Structure formats: structure tokens, C-alpha cells
Amino acid sequence: MLLGLVLLMCAPACGPAREVLLLTAQPSRPKEGSSMTLICETQGTSRKTDAQLEFCFFKDGRALGQGWSSSPKLLLPTVWREDSGSYWCEEKTTALRATRSPRIQIQVQDNDASMVPGRGCGLPPEGVPVWNVSLEVQPPGGQVQKGKKLVLICLATQGTGDITFSWYKGALGLNLETKTQSSLAAKFEILAVTDSDTEKYYCTADNGYGPSISELVSVTVRSPVSRPVLTVGELGAQVFPGDTVELHCEAQSGSPPILYRFYHEDVILGSSSAPSGGGASFNLSLTAEHSGNYSCEADNGLGPQLSEAVPLTVTGRRPARDPSRSPPSPVPQVSNYVNSAAPLQEPSVYENVNVVSSGNEVYSLVYHTQQERPAAVEPRRTQSSDQDAAAIYFRLKKASVTDVDYEDAM
Length: 410
Prior knowledge:
Layout: E1 20-26, E2 36-43, E3 53-59, E4 62-63, E5 73-76, E6 85-93, E7 98-100, E8 104-106, E9 131-138, E10 143-145, E11 150-158, E12 163-169, E13 174-181, E14 185-190, E15 199-206, E16 212-213, E17 217-222, E18 229-232, E19 244-250, E20 258-264, E21 267-274, E22 279-285, E23 292-299, E24 305-306, E25 310-312, E26 349-358, E27 361-369, E28 392-396, H1 406-409
Parallel strand pairs: 10-17
Antiparallel strand pairs: 1-2, 2-5, 3-4, 3-6, 6-7, 6-8, 9-11, 11-14, 12-13, 12-15, 15-16, 15-17, 18-19, 19-22, 20-21, 20-23, 23-24, 23-25, 26-27, 27-28
């Protein structure tokens, strides 16, 4: 731990770097138990010399010392192995404009660390740690077409000797490649990217003084659009001048956003955008001149695709309606209940079959019958006959026997 120091949090300033700010350590490879001085220096500045400056030093995300101060130097009286890590500094003016230096890796050495074979006893090793590591992407901007090549270039501003470069995928750091070479830059290639290569990437560089890490860089794999399909109104519907028809164009695949253009006989009618993918529509008010072939085009910046032509015929005139012709009145429907088990009955029929006289009174014996309409379902018959065998007597008061036509009754 750092002895005699108070660790305070001072908010790291944000914003793009406006000047070249460098952090150096004296000595660059301190020994355990010794002191170390951090120096924050501005190079290439165009500021006036009377500008009031403040400085803040950081280690692994923590502010060191008393936070912001007017001194560009910070003395660490005693350092130990656990004080090894990533250091940087920040500088700001009274206008709160701040710049941040690149990170440097400081490795606190054991007391006998200067004894390096081949360099002679007691001679300190020579070399400069790598710092200000960055990751560049080709094509620029990190937008790469599916199936094309992606190049990740790891760069270090400074560093001596052999440098080991490593490339990582995702925030969790899936190692993709590691190589060592005597240069400040190295590249890693993915020859044919797929959808799964859409991710954040970073790299590290290390020449023995501890790794320096780049910022995360986003890579997006984009797919070209497929050939779109155009639909014009309702299938088979007849259209007339004055109608409005909907033209709908949709590509089944392709990375958004997608721009759709609509054409009539190769003349553009208009365009519509689909920011999240899918299809787009265009409404057209028809005239007689709008008969012909229609098509649409889909484009997401990776090459346009044109649909097949769809014909549309605009009928010259909508048929007029004849007011003299009115629809026939509906015929009242009488329910026959054909499926009912109960038969429909016809009017009753009475038949005079016998005449009996008794004194001045005449009795007539008749049979009562009913004709039935066959039902859809044959009803269950009972033991009674179709003719009611029970006689119905009608008493004819004060009727003379001579008034009865016996011959008709018989």
C-alpha cells in the first residue's frame, strides 16, 4: 500500500483530449521501499502561460494524494509491490477544460530485480514501457458487410523491445489471438465475418512492464437486403379512377435501416423508410393514366435490390347504378317444420255414415278423420287406427225423419 498518503476520489474529467498530456515516473522502475515521483507534463500546448492549472493523479481508477492540486508532481514516499498497476493523470484549467494522459504501467521491483543476466551485475535493465495503446478497425467505423474481411489493428504510441499483442472479444475478454513482434503495431484478421462477430473488441500490448489495454471498439456486421416483394392493393380487386391503392414493399432479410423506393414504369413515385427493418407502404391516388407496371427497390447501403414488376389496370369508368331497378321484395317464408316429429295436419273431414231415429229425435253417427302430411322423421305409430273408431253423436232436436235424406246417408 502507499504509506503516508490519503486516497481521495476526484471525479475524472470527461471529454475529448485537447492537448498532449504525458505522465512519467521517476524512477520508471522503482524498487520496493524506495520513493517514486509522478510528473504530469503538457506538451504542444498553445495556452497562455498565465493560465491556472490543476492536476490530479490516478491509479487503477482511484485518485491519489489530496485530489486536485496546482502541482504537476506527486511524491510517493514509499512504494511496494502492491503499488504496481496502471497510472494516469489529468489536467484542467479554471474553465474546467480537462485533458487526460495515456495510461502507463508501473511495476515495482524487488530489491534484487536489477540483477539481470547478460547485462552485468548491478546494471539496471534498459527499455521503455508501452503506453497509449489503441485499437483501430478496418473498414473504418466498425461497419462490415457479412462475409467480408474484418481487420483489427493494435497500436502502441511508445515501447521498446519485443511487444506481445493480444486481441479480445466481448467485455469478458475471449482471447482471439496473441503474437509477439518487434514493432509498435500488429493486426489480427477475420477473413469472413458472420452475424456472431457483432461485438465489442479490445487489445493489449506488453513488453515486460505490464500490459497496456485499449478502449473497447464496437463492430457491427450488416447483411445486404434480399430481393423485395411488391403487393399492389387487394389481389384481383378492380380499381377505378379516384380510388386509393396501397403499394407495399418488403425485403425478407437485411440489416436495418432499409429505404424503399416505389416506381411506376421506371418513374419514381416516392419513398418510405423502415428504421427497424420490415416493409414499408406507399398510398397512391389513381387516375386513368396509372395503368401499367409497378416495382419497388430496397436499399440498406450494401447494394439495392429491385422487385419483380406487378401490373395494374385502372378501369376507365365506374359503372353507374340504375335507380329504376330496385331489388325484388323478399318473399315471406312460411316455416313448414319439415324436420319436426309432429306431422302437419290438414283440415278435418267428417263423414256421415249412419242415421238412427228414436221418436222425434234423430241421431247421426259420423267418423272423424284427419289427413296427415308425412314428416321428415317417421313418427312412432300407436295402436289407434287412422280413423277414430269412437263415434260422435250429434243430437238433432226437433228434426223430422222425413227431412233426412236416408239414401245419401247410406
